[in-house]
Amino acid sequence: MKLSTTVRLRAYLVTASMSAVVIQVGALVSICAFGVPEAYFQTPTFRLVAAGAICAMVFGVATISPMAFRSAVARRYAIHDDNLRDHDAGFFARIRRQLTQRFF
Q: Would you tell me which of 36, 64, 68, 85 could form a disulfide with 30, CB atoms 3.0–4.6 Å apart?
């Protein structure tokens, strides 16, 4: 798997995790502050809605992130250089190889 794919999947995983935390905090606040019964959050309907919300957040981030990157490059907040990417890929491949040899 290419490094860029791994980084992208990691970003989507972090987005999904943060979305799940927001849903859990919302559920906790509604239980404590508004007196919503806990049984409401154990229903299949709530779980499907929560899973749909997480998928929607990941899809939204996947849709908006290329535009944000292009905007950052256009405003010179970020650089896009293929030579830097190749160097970083070699660096990360070397670290991955060392970790694999050490732990597996």
A: 36
d(CA 65, CA 88): 21
Q: How many CB atoms are located within 10 Å of the residue 32 CB?
A: 9
Q: What is the pLDDT of residue 2?
A: 76
Positive or negative, the Cα torsion across 61, 66, 68, 72? Answer: positive
pLDDT confidence tier of residue 99, bands split at 50, 70 and 90 = confident
Residue 46, judged by CB atoms within 10 A of its CB (0-12, 13-18, 19+), counts as: middle
